[in-house]
Amino acid sequence: MQSIGTKSACGTRMKNYRRISAGLAMFTVVGSVLSSLLIIEIALRFLPVCSSMQKLPVDQHNPILRFPSNQRFTYAKGWNFEILNYGRFNNYGFVNNQDYQSNPEDLLLAVIGDSYVEALMVPYEQSLQGRLAELYKGKGKVYSFGISGSQLAQYVAMAEYVWREFHPQGLVFVIIGNDFDESLVQVRSGLHLFKRHSQDQSLSLIRTDYQPTVLETILKHSAVVRYLWSTVGVGDLTRLPQWFTRSEVLYVGNTSRDASLERVRDSRLVVDSFFSELSRRVELEPARIQFVVDGMRPQLYSPEDLLKAQGSYFDLIRQYFIETAILKGYEVIDLQSPFIARHDKDGARFEFPTDGHWNGLGHQVAADAVSASNLAKMVSTYPGPTAQTIR
After folding, report:
1. What is the pLDDT of residues 156-211, one digit of tens each?
2. Which residue in 12, 65, 241, 274 has a CA-CA distance of 20 to 30 Å to 232?
3. What are the protein's GO molecular function terms (predicted)?
4. Residue 297 lies in a domain
């Protein structure tokens, strides 16, 4: 018969054995997971996964959100890389094949917008600004300033920056459905917003600073993270139903169709503040500033769907924006009509099957409209020091 001490020692050894076994099992599992991730990480580095798209810090020294300068990038969308594009961030940190020069004597047209102008998913040559630059090649310059997530408040700040840095003879803004109410909401750090004053409900333009965190920087260097987050888009899956299930009832023009009184009222206040700030910060006459307003896609492809979209948020606020701009002397290009005309002709669509941004054809329709506009004619006859013309 074993003594009590012997039994106690055996029990202790068994407990230690179980702990060691559990530890080894955990180590094996963790090691297997890490090994698998390492293998996947290495494999993905041989595939066209999205580049990190890390932005520069935003502060008083660099007030405009942009990318590090002089870098190549890869853009991919979809688990199978359905949308794939390559491009570069130029010397000013914007997506453009040209390097920019700050020369007051240059004949310059500047294009400002959000991801539609950033156009990561479209070859530069097929983009609005790329097509215009080719059209004006040797006669004038077309620079673009687009950053994803931008909205009317950010457009004002970008326009002021562009005016002070480059002194363009004309400005073109691309306006889409979520540019209005998102001017009041911090979608991401580094963008300008309109801040409401509680006393009189007026709005003022503010800058939100941005400093990349250590964790953010580390994660963006991981091909696995970039594949899941940027290429597959796990952080944006809630927006897919509007393109896969044709949920036109919920979305019109890439934004919710909800036209509550509060939302429409706030957005009209944003529009009024935008025009007020723009005229104060940019010393161009209104006739030299143009707004290219997106159509109500995908509803414009069907007369029945377009009829149902009447009274939606984007329908109401785009009408208010267009009417206000025209009353103030600005030129407006409403892409709804040319989009419908082209679609009726050959059934063409102007966005990707799995992405609501303009495809190359959408950019072409916009470029054709801008090149035939009054602004293009005015800029082409600008009596500047270069004495060059755009034809």
Report:
1. 999 999 999 999 999 999 999 999 999 998 777 899 999 998 777 789 999 999 99
2. 65
3. hydrolase activity, acting on ester bonds
4. yes
